[in-house]
Amino acid sequence: MMDLFKTKIGRLRILAILEGISLLSLVCIAVPMKYWMGNPLFVRLIGPVHGTLFLLFLFNTLSIGVEQNWKFKEITWKVILACFIPFGTFYIDWKILSKL
């Protein structure tokens, strides 16, 4: 796990996992608490964290894609698309990022 912090792709993989976990916690914990229990506190806390992780993942993907000359049609667009699909970052980490 510590090896992931040493490379830019490793850090992108960590962002992908954190972004996916933040979405899971938002969808499975915060939103149900808001609508079923009338407590919007967790949405207010987790929502901005998820949004920040989402943007960090998006900008880092573009940055690494340009820096490492990824072919846009083969890698970059798939990684970018993954962050728009719920839980797509888990899939893209497993399918593409872990092999780079």
UniProtKB/TrEMBL annotation:
<keyword id="KW-1003">Cell membrane</keyword>
<feature type="transmembrane region" description="Helical">
    <location>
        <begin position="12"/>
        <end position="35"/>
    </location>
</feature>
<dbReference type="Pfam" id="PF12823">
    <property type="entry name" value="DUF3817"/>
</dbReference>
<protein>
    <submittedName>
        <fullName>DUF3817 domain-containing protein</fullName>
    </submittedName>
</protein>
<keyword id="KW-0812">Transmembrane</keyword>
<dbReference type="InterPro" id="IPR023845">
    <property type="entry name" value="DUF3817_TM"/>
</dbReference>
<dbReference type="GO" id="GO:0005886">
    <property type="term" value="C:plasma membrane"/>
</dbReference>
<keyword id="KW-0472">Membrane</keyword>
<feature type="domain" description="DUF3817">
    <location>
        <begin position="10"/>
        <end position="96"/>
    </location>
</feature>
<feature type="transmembrane region" description="Helical">
    <location>
        <begin position="41"/>
        <end position="63"/>
    </location>
</feature>
<keyword id="KW-1133">Transmembrane helix</keyword>
<feature type="transmembrane region" description="Helical">
    <location>
        <begin position="75"/>
        <end position="92"/>
    </location>
</feature>
